[in-house]
Amino acid sequence: MDAEIRITAEPIDNAHCKFLVSLPVHSGGVRRFASSEAARGSPLAEAIFAIPGAEVTEVIVSGNLVTVVKRSAAPWQAVGKSVGAAIRSALASGRAAVAPKPAGAAVPGGVDDDALYDRVAELFDAQVNPMVARHGGRVELIDVQDAVVMLRMAGGCQGCGMADVTLRQGIEAMLQQSVPEVKGIVDITDHTAGTNPYFAAAKK
Q1: What single string gives the DSSP state of each residue in 44-90?
Q2: What pLDDT does residue 110 have?
C-alpha cells in the first residue's frame, strides 16, 4: 500500500510545512493538535510529535492535508522524510489515522481556535478565494493561533502591489463581518518570491 501513497511537501517557512497526501487522511473536518498529549489516540499525530529532534509544536489535519509546525532549526528536507514516513505508517495500519474530534469542552474566554479554524476555512472557500481567483490569486489558511489567523497569498496575489489592500479591505473586512471573534491577521507570504515583488529582498 505504501507505493500508492504519494505525499508532496510544501514548506511555508522554517516553522510551517504543508504535506499534501494522495489519500484522504481525515474526513471529519479539521483536527488541530497543539501538544503530544492532545495527540493521544490519533496515531498519525502521535507519530509526528514523536519525531526526534523536530520539536513539533502543532499538527493540523484536514482532508488530504497535514500541516506541521516545528520549533527546531532542522530543515524541512530532513524532517519531511520522517513526517512522510509517519503519515504512510498511520495510513497503512488499517486503523483510523486521526481520532474524531471530542465533544467540545469549555474554552477559557469562549474562543476555540479549532472552531475558528473551521469557520475561517469555510469563509475562505465560499467567499475569499472566489473573490481573489478573479485576479488569478489564491489565499491559503495556514493556522489560527489565539484567535489570530495566519495566511499565505499565492498565485497572482503573491508579490502583487495590491496585496495589502486585498488583505486589509477585502479579507479582513470579511472576517470581521463573518467571524468577529478573530482578533487579527498575519500574512506570512514571501512576497519577494512573487512574480511582481513589491518588497525589496534586501530590506528586513
Answers
A1: HHHHHHT-TTT-EEEEEEEETEEEEEE-S---HHHHHHHHHHHHHHH
A2: 59
Quick one: how many helices (H) and strands (E) in the chain?
6, 8
In the chain, domain spans: 2-92, 108-193
| Nearest Cα residue to 67 out of 81, 42, 48 | 48
State how far the Cα of 120 lies from the Cα of 169, in Å rounded to an integer. 16
Dist. CA 24–CA 5, nearest whole Å? 10
pTM value?
A: 0.66
How many Cβ atoms are within 10 Å of 73's Cβ, its own excluded?
A: 9
Q: What is the pLDDT of residues 34-62, one digit of tens each?
A: 899 999 999 999 999 999 999 999 998 88
CB-based contact 121:154 (threshold 8 Å)? no
Give, in words, the CATH class of 108-193. alpha beta
What would the grid cell of residue 192 be?
Answer: 519577494
> Residue 42 corresponds to which cell in the numbers above?
490519533
Query: Which cell goes with 184?
Result: 487579527
Domain 2-92 coded CATH 1.10.10.250: no
**Integer Cα distance of 171 and 132 in angstroms:** 10
Distance, CA of 84 to chain centre: 16
What's the rounded Cα separation, in Å, for the pair 116 and 122?
10
